[in-house]
Amino acid sequence: MTAIEPATNQQQSSGLKDAPKLHSIWAAANLLIVGLWFRLFWPLLPYFSIIFEREDFRLNQILLVIILALFTLQIRSHGMQVNLSAPPRSAPLPLLLFAGGCIAFTLAERTLSINTLSAMLFVLSGYGLLGLWMEAGPWRRRLPAALMLLGVLPFGEHLQTFVGFPMRMLTARLVGSFVQFFGVPSVGIDTILVFENGISQVDLPCSGVKSLWTGALFLVSATWIEQRAMTIRWWLVALTMPILLFFANFVRVLLLVVIGEVGGFTLFAEMIHVPLGVLGFIIVCAIVLLGLQLGKKTEGKAEAEVVERDSSSWRLWLSPVLVVGLGALILLYTPLPATGSAEVVQPWLFSNRLVTEPLPLKQDEAAWFIKDGAESVDRVRFTWHDESGQEISGTMILVTSSTWRAHHNPERCFEVYGLTLNLSQTHLTAQQQPIRSVQLGHGTGKNQYAATYWFQSANQITDDYGVRIWADTKLDRQRWVLVSILFDEMHKLSEPTVETLVQELQQTVGKRLRG
User: Fold this and answer.
1) C-alpha distances out from residue 157 to 47, 146, 282, 469, Å
2) What integer is the mean pLDDT of 307-317?
């Protein structure tokens, strides 16, 4: 025994001397992994700069500051507990988030190129990467914070398009069936959509889609602040919340249609649509908060119960696997190629009453349309001469494309050029075609300009961007034209001169699309 003890002590002494070297090696390897991860997501940097600079993302910026402040306070209270001088843990959930987010990002950039989706994958994979050097308990406890960061991304337009459109259609059908059940067959789906859209031009949380976003933020923030465990009960509450929000929005639209459209009390419907939305949202949040109170907290014994098996042999070869995998994804990364062409396939053949003068786009504006798949982009100054001798003038842009990515909601373009959006609502033409009526201001004036736009295919006209996008999900994808008009003066779309101009343009676009 005495002969062995000196050797053992010598080995222990040698191990202590080698420990700093091992820590340095692991720290260098871990920093390499983090650097490669940043390199993979580097193309998102311009998008994040836009989010932090644009005024229309101001709410998202405020929420981000609040979340980061709360996260900083929690770190100061409990510590970050990240050990970058140790080999990464082979924890299943962090590895799944990290590897899955990186692979999905590479595929999404090549096929979809939706910036918000890529940013979402960046947050998920980043939190999974963080979990490779954090203990299981603290990492799981701070998972709601990562979900809150996802919530502050600008999902608005995508939610309105991919979720909002089917939700609006389903709500309108249910409301129409409910009203018809009680003997009011005259209220159709289109009437409900136009009526509800016309009096509900508000932000949070009156809109059904935006209440889902707000509700999700409330659920995650309450989970984080109350430190509730994400157990089966929590997931049941999370799945129940959107159902309750949809039902609350259904009741709101039903009451608005019954009071305003059926009963004829339109002004009263306009007065109560905000209180109805807020009241329904508060009731749902109260129910959700009550459900969370029944869950377990993640602190104390609950956190101590979180145990993950971690094999030391796995930890030794996990670092080189991550380095090789990230390097391969960086080499395989290919953004979605531009498919559009700014060359005009054929000139527009307007009638003699519409005098046009070309107004070419700037080089960066044309490049933006080409990148997103526009087949042709035409901007002109126009003067329209009516049969009665009246004339109106303005600027018009026509964007032809077979993909929804080249189209957009023109309200943002108006605001970029310094105009204030005062009103945007659906207007039905004399042919019962929905187009968008926009009233704009500049400086101290309230309404100084009028504008209109619509999306048109060979057999459909709509002012709903969601309808335009969902049309691309069909197998027989069609070519569409976005027609956007900014008048030099204030006009109403119901004026005969404007109506004849719109009708003439719709006929011209229809003839071109039908070949």
Assistant:
1) 15, 22, 24, 11
2) 57
Q: How confident is the model at residue 302 (pLDDT cuts 50, 70, 90)?
A: very low
Encoded amino acid at 13, one letter: S
Rounded Cα–Cα distance for residues 460 and 506 (Å): 10
Q: What is the pLDDT of residues 93-128, one digit of tens each?
A: 899 999 999 999 999 888 767 788 888 899 999 999
CA distance 512 to 481: 10
H or E stretch at 116: helix 115-130
| Bridge partners, residue 440, by sequence | 421, 449
Tell me the per-residue pLDDT of 424-444, one tens digit each, with 9 for 90 and over: 888 888 888 889 999 888 766
Q: Are the C-beta atoms of residues 448 and 441 closer than 8 Å to each other?
A: yes
DSSP, collapsed to helix, strand or coil, labels residue 412 as helix
Which DSSP category does 473 fall into?
Answer: T
| 8 Å CB contact between 243 and 235 | no
Q: What is the pLDDT of residues 120-160, one digit of tens each?
A: 899 999 999 999 998 888 888 788 878 888 877 776 556 66
Contact by Cβ (8 Å): 131, 91: yes
Q: Supply the pTM of this predicted model.
A: 0.64
| C-alpha Rg value of the chain to the nearest Å | 29
241, with CB counted inside 10 A (0-12, 13-18, 19+), is: buried
- 381: alpha, beta or left, given left = phi > 0 and alpha = psi -120 to 50? beta
User: For residue 346, is it left (φ>0), alpha (ψ between -120 and 50) or beta?
Assistant: beta
Q: CA-CA distance, 179 to 188, in Å (whole number)?
A: 10
Nearest to 484 by CA among 410, 428, 412: 410
The span from the CA of 248 to the CA of 252, in Å, is 6
Instruction: Give the span between the Cα atoms of 509 and 515, in whole angstroms.
Output: 10
DSSP characters over 58-101? HHHHHHHHHHHHHHHHHHHHH---B-TTSPPP--HHHHHHHHHH
* End-to-end Cα separation, the chain, in angstroms: 98
How many residues are recorded in the chain?
A: 515
CA dist 456 and 340 (Å) reads: 18
Q: How far is CA 207 from CA 159, 200, 248, 262, 369, in A?
A: 11, 7, 11, 21, 30
User: Each residue of 211-255: pLDDT tens digit?
Assistant: 787 888 888 888 877 777 778 888 899 899 989 988 988 888 888
